[in-house]
Specification:
- The protein has 121 residues and is mostly helical.
- It has two domains: 29 residues; 77 residues, no CATH class.
- It contains five helices and no strands.
- Keywords: Coiled coil, Membrane, Transmembrane, Transmembrane helix.
Length: 121
């Protein structure tokens, strides 16, 4: 009698596991990634700084190579500089070279602040 109970319980466990393994293949929301569903299309400086911080953590944990780290970090810094340019549109004629340098310095200051807040320095 106990063998039948163990057989039924084992079968139920196996069927439940099989269901959880196979169910994602038959879901109706194919082609959508849950991480991108929450993104509303607005990019902020805080999100870029957060991405740079995550990138640095990945590099320090040896998850990515130095070459890839430097390339991605430069891209994020350029993106942040572009965001800063769009946020503070100049009202008069400003020397573009000095404006770019100023934006880069501001970016570096903000990164330094974030590192201090996170306890990295």
């Amino acid at each position: 009698m106990m063998e039948i109970v163990y057989l039924l319980a084992g079968s139920a466990i196996i069927l439940t596991c099989f269901y959880f393994i196979v169910a994602p293949f038959f879901s109706t929301n194919r082609g959508t990634d849950s991480g991108f569903e929450q993104w509303d299309g607005t990019l902020t400086l805080d999100s870029v700084y957060g991405a740079v911080n995550e990138l640095e953590m990945d590099y320090l944990m040896k998850k990515i190579k130095e070459k890839d780290f430097l390339q991605l970090k430069e891209q994020y810094q350029l993106l942040a500089a572009e965001l800063m340019k769009h946020e503070s549109k100049p009202k008069g004629k400003v020397n573009p070279a000095s404006h770019t340098e100023e934006a880069e310095l501001e970016l570096l200051r903000e990164l330094q602040k974030l590192r201090k807040q996170k306890g990295r320095i």
